[in-house]
Amino acid sequence: MLRRHCILMAVLALAACGKPETPPVTPPVTPPDPPVVPDPPVVEDQDVLLQLSLSFPGNMSSQTADFPASKADAVQLRHSVRIFRASESGGWESAPEWQKVITSDKLDSPDTEISADLKQHRYKVLVWTDFVRGSADWFWSAGDFSKVQLQGSYQGASEYKKAFYGSKEVDLTSSGASANSRISMELPVAAYRIIATDGGSFEGKTLTATIAYPEPVPAAFNLWEGAAVDTRSGLSFSVPVEALPDGTVSISSDILLMSGAEASVPVQLRLQGADGSVLLDQAVSIPLKKGRETVLRGELLSAGASSGITLDPSFEGEYDISF
């Protein structure tokens, strides 16, 4: 019995010694969380006060009798200013970042200072200046800067039809609290006047001059492109013939948008008496130059309806052309 017990113990001990031990299980190592890096602070564009100086060419005062000496009709200069922010695509935003309309009764001293509150960025400044009566459009409708156009029925023989435009890119990305920029305003138009030198033939007469344009003339201006963009056909207007202080007679005048630097505009000129009789009915080609006035002079009142008009072919100097 004792022998059997010893054998059993030996077998059990042998079995225990032959079984391999199970290694301990090592738990997975969790990496530490990365350090939290705060977002960089948002840097806002700094405020910049942009001081714009609008500079106009020459003397704005009129040389013709239709520019009144008084302010009875409340005529004012209107400066329409719009500032567009540069877009990420490389162009300009369609809606203005800043805009303002300023009116002034200083008709003969139009140079103007304008302040605009902006941010540090790049901008395009567009300006249109024209004449208005009260708050309404007069000759020009300036609501759309891509198409500032003649509005209403066609009107001629007025210095108030004159208009100016300006365009400039301004970089304020590195500006301080304020910046200055000067904009040289330009005339997108040309003017002409027709003067009769035989004023003695006008005494005691009531005459009407009618100007008709047999070909389309520019009637809209794009400030973005700095060019005329549209035309109108069949335009005409009539005005009374008026004696001038120097003994000559003002037949008619007009101001036209220019598509280029120079142009020759066909005009049909008719002079009629109070009884409807035709004194003169003649086609004329008037040479024009942007920003200048062409003055045509001649003996028109005594010339007779059948007389032709000949223009000096030279177009230089003061652009004072003789019939």
Structure description:
It is a single chain. The longest helix is centred in the N-terminal third of the chain and has 17 residues, at 2-18. The protein folds into two domains: 44-186, Immunoglobulin-like (Sandwich), CATH 2.60.40; 188-323, Immunoglobulin-like (Sandwich). The N and C termini lie far apart (158 Å). With 323 residues, the protein is mainly β. The chain is built from one helix and 20 strands.
Describe the structure in brief:
The chain is mainly beta. It folds into two domains: 44-186, Immunoglobulin-like; 188-323, Immunoglobulin-like (Sandwich). 5% of the residues lie in helices and 44% in strands.
The radius of gyration is 40 Å
Mean pLDDT over the residues: 83
State the domain count: 2
Task: Assign the CATH topology of the largest domain.
Answer: Immunoglobulin-like
Beta strands, count: 20
- The dominant shape is elongated
First-residue to last-residue Cα separation: 158 Å
**CATH secondary-structure class of the largest domain:** Mainly Beta
